[in-house]
Each structure stands twice: as C-alpha cells, then as structure tokens.
Write a structure and sequence with these properties.
With 495 residues, this protein is α/β, with parallel strands linked by helices. The model is unreliable at 383-446 and 458-495 (pLDDT under 50). Helices cover 33% and strands 13% of the residues. Bound molecules: adenosine monophosphate (AMP).
C-alpha cells in the first residue's frame, strides 16, 4: 500500500514525502480512505501508531476542497475542531497539521490554557479553518464569543480515554451541543471502556470501527523487566542505573507532580542531567523541559502520567517506571513511546513490595509476565518483603508489633531512616494528614552494598537470558551481578 493508492491530493503527498514517510502505517491505510469518504470513525489506536496523520491527512483533504485564499475573516470560518486532553498533545497535533498542510491554503491555530489568551483571540478573529484545542481554553473563547462553531464540518476527539480520566467529559458535551448536527466525527481512544462507548454512541453516526493494535496490547519490540527494591532505595537504584549505564533519553515516570520535581532535583544533585515535566509547570517551563530532553541537554525527563501523555519523542528507547501507575492501562500508555516503528525499546520498573499487586494487574493486562531481575546490593531483604506485605494496622500498633509513638513518628531505634521525612515518596506522605498519620515501623533496611563501578547493562545477552518466568509473584529470583538481563521476547499478543 502506498500513500498514492490512498487517493491523497498531490499537495498532501508532497508533504508526506517531505516528512520522509514511504508507506502508510496500518491505521493510516485504514483510516484515510474512510475519513475521505466522510464517514464517522471510532479509532482504537495508541500514540506511536501514526494515528495523527491518519486523521489529519484526510481531514486536510476534505477541507482543501473549498479552501479560500481570500483575506476576509468571513471566508475562513472554523471548519474542523480537534480536541485533545493536554496542551502537549494539542501542540503536537497542531505541528502535524502544519507539517502535512504546508502546501494547502488552510489556516490553523492551536488553543490551550496556561498562556495569554489575547493572541489566540486575535488569531480566531482573523479566521482559521482548523482549530486544535484543549477543552477548557476553548470554552473560555466560547464565553468571550471569539469563536463560532456554525461552520464546523469535522470534529476529532483525540485520546478520548484520557479526556475521561481528566474529567473533561462535561466540557466535551458542552462543546458537542454547540456544533452543527450535520458533521463528521472521529473519536480516537487507546482503550474502550463502557463510558467511552457511551460517549461514542452520543457523538458518532454509524461509525466505522478501526482498530490497529489490539486493545491493551503492547508493542512486541519492548523488553519488560522489573527490579525488586525497597521503596527507600529506589532513588539510589535509579541513580546507580543512570550513572553506570550509557542509557540516553530516559523517560522516568513517577506518580505525583511533587515527586517528579523532587526526583529531578535529586538526580541533578547526583550529577545526572534531569528535568521534570508535570501539570503544575507553566507552559513555557514544560516546553523548555521537553526541548532540553529532545536536544539531549537533559538525559532524563521525569514525568507524571498526565504530563507525558501523548509526548511525541521520536525513537525514545528507555522508559523507567520509578513508580508503577495507579491504573494498569497507564503502563501501556507509558511505554507507548518506546519500541515505536519496530525499534527496540525497554521498559524497566522499580517495584517495591507494596507495589506487587499493581504489578500483577499489569501483567494480567499486557498478557505477559515481566521478568524479575535482582540488582545486586539492592535486593529488598525478606524482612522488608514480609513487613511491607502485611496490611497496615490501626493506631497505636504497627506491622512490626512495636508501639507507635503518639505523635505518629516512628521509633528511631526500630526503623533507622535513610532520608529526612520530607523527602520520602509523596504518595505515602499523603495517605494521612501529617498530624494524625500512624505508620508501621519500618523494618531495618539492608545496607546498600553494590559496586558502583559495575555497569548497568540492560541488553539481553545469551548468558543472562533467563527462561521465561512463571506468572507468579513468588517466582524464583535471579540475582545478576550489578544488574541486567531482559526477557526473551514474548509471543505476540494474539488471542
Ligand atoms: P502518532 O502515533 O501520530 O503520534 O505518530 C507517531 C510517530 O510516527 C510520529 O513521530 C510521526 O511523525 C511518525 N509517523 C507517522 N506516520 C508515519 C509513516 N507513515 N511512516 C513513518 N513514520 C510515521
């Protein structure tokens, strides 16, 4: 299949060729003809499949038919609306609109919050055919009456599942209610929950279902592995991995905004160039962080799930889950940035005993076991495992059965801490208000005893290739000198 065979206009074929694409990806091959034909689409595709070009190219083709070169704003009404959950994704989709639409006389604009609204208002007043927007800021423009939806012909909802997660559905419904009934609608989502299906029912007319990767499937070129480690040793293990390996462009995922910043600062103190990206950062800070990472100035980008969603970073080979995601689907989203287009990638998770349940859910979802690889010197001792596995007790007692001090602090003789309280993982900090928090006394952590000169080398080597581990939490552990090893590539995710 070629782009020519998909029936694209010469202007679009030229842009595609400029971008260096030689053949359409599966989602493009399926979606382009359907969208050109004016049909509604329900698309099941993750970032990395080429889905953006899959809807932007045919959308441009439809709008190009009646493109106007007149300078009059009235001749440039909003004809296509593309909604995305995050600013980053909006920027990336807008970039694609510009890349593929460079030979077509259509005006485009990206609209998102966190930046001055005035330039957006002015651009809207001058007239734009294609608006890529995040829902909140778009509604601000509606309120200001700087945008009018009467001429919208095509609506695209990108990453609808994330819109749902982020609580945007009421905003989306308000926007939908303002659009002409006669229009084409496309909805893309990596997963199809009942809620997504309900939303699809309310906005799509006899949609064509296009699914490229199986739902909840992960790329097969990604090697998954996990290193068991005590929560309080994660930072040191991460620093060890980064210091002793040649890994470049490492995307590290953490659970919270606060945790992201703190971890990036810690890594910097360890001499590792790192930057953080999360929802509390200004748009400019986020763009700068992303740029530093893309250009190689920062070797490590520490991100939260929300901020990293949809980041288009080409050839990102390494993802490290410093914390496992709260929802197993996010594991798939996280690693969607690696192993793209048949390239090799790896997803390494640092898993403390408390996260074993989450790990099991992820393995169930991706339908493959994640190889457990011990890093010498970082193995959580059996007492750590046992203590963390026990459910927390109520006030006045703790998992080790020692009396808890009335102020909620821990008995120092029982649990020497390696770090000041404020630097521990934020999530655990948030479990109870500080004054009332009662935590189980922690078991004595084994002293870290690793050889910092031994390299972290995460490539699969014949010697270190373990037999495929059983899908159980208590599979035999494999100790590897200062790390490594990957699992043999799992069978394809069929069935
Ligand atoms: P997306 O899934 O839309 O985020 O696209 C993922 C990446 O694939 C982007 O970096 C695109 O530039 C790239 N891409 C899209 N279509 C093609 C294609 N047909 N051939 C090669 N790369 C592509």
């Amino acid at each position: 299949m070629t782009f020519e065979e998909l029936g694209l206009l010469p202007e679009l074929l030229r842009a595609v060729s400029d971008a260096g694409y030689t053949e359409p990806t599966p989602i493009q091959a399926q979606a382009i003809p359907v969208v050109i034909a004016g049909k509604d689409v329900m698309g099941g595709a993750q970032t990395g499949t080429g889905k953006t070009a899959g809807f932007v190219l045919p959308l441009l083709q439809r709008l190009a038919r009646h493109a106007s070169t007149s300078p009059s704003p009235a001749r440039h009404p909003v004809r296509a609306l593309i909604l995305t959950p995050t600013r980053e994704l909006a920027m990336q989709v807008h970039e694609s609109v510009q890349t593929y639409g460079k030979y077509v006389p259509l005006r485009d604009l990206v609209v998102y919050g966190g930046v001055d609204i005035k330039p957006q208002t002015e651009a809207l007043r001058k007239g734009v055919e294609i608006v890529v927007a995040t829902p909140g800021r778009l509604l601000d423009h509606v309120q200001q009456k700087s945008v009018n939806f009467n001429s919208v012909e095509v609506l695209v909802l990108d990453e609808a599942d994330r819109m749902l997660d982020m609580g945007f559905i009421p905003d989306i419904k308000r926007i939908l209610a303002m659009l002409p009934k006669e229009r084409q609608s496309l909805l893309f989502s990596a997963t199809f929950s009942e809620e997504i299906k309900k939303l699809a029912d309310s906005m799509l007319k006899q949609p064509v279902l296009i699914e490229v990767a199986r739902r909840n499937a992960v790329t097969e070129t990604v090697t998954h592995r996990m290193h068991p480690v005590a929560q309080d040793h994660k930072r040191q293990l991460l620093a060890h991995i980064l210091k002793t390996s040649s890994l470049k462009q490492v995307l590290v995922f953490v659970g919270t905004k606060f945790g992201a910043s703190r971890l990036a600062v810690y890594l910097e103190k360890q001499g590792i160039e790192a930057t953080a990206i999360h929802g509390d950062k200004s748009q400019q800070q986020r763009s700068e962080a992303l740029e530093a990472f893309k250009s190689g100035k920062a070797r490590v980008l520490v991100a939260t799930d929300v901020a990293a969603r949809g980041l288009d970073i080409d050839d990102l080979p390494h993802v490290i889950n410093y914390e496992l995601p709260h929802v197993p689907e996010d594991y798939i989203h996280r690693i969607g940035r690696t192993g793209r287009a048949g390239k090799e990638g790896d997803a390494t998770s640092l898993v403390c005993p408390e996260e074993r349940g989450k790990l099991a859910e992820i393995e169930k979802l991706i339908k493959r076991p994640i190889e457990q690889v011990l890093v010498q010197g970082f193995e959580p001792g059996p007492d750590v495992d046992a203590a963390h596995d026990k459910p927390r007790r109520g006030r006045g007692s703790n998992s080790a059965g020692r009396p808890e001090r009335g102020d909620g602090s821990r008995d120092k003789s029982a649990a020497p801490r390696r770090e000041p309280r404020g630097r521990r993982d934020e999530e655990r900090e948030r479990e109870r208000p500080p004054s009332r928090r009662v935590e189980p006394a922690k078991p004595k952590l084994p002293k870290l005893d690793f050889d910092p000169s031994k390299p972290y080398e995460p490539k699969v080597s014949a010697q270190n290739t373990a037999p495929e581990p059983k899908r159980t939490h208590h599979r035999p552990k494999r100790a590897v000198p200062a790390l490594l090893g990957g699992m043999p590539k799992a069978d394809s995710d069929k069935g």
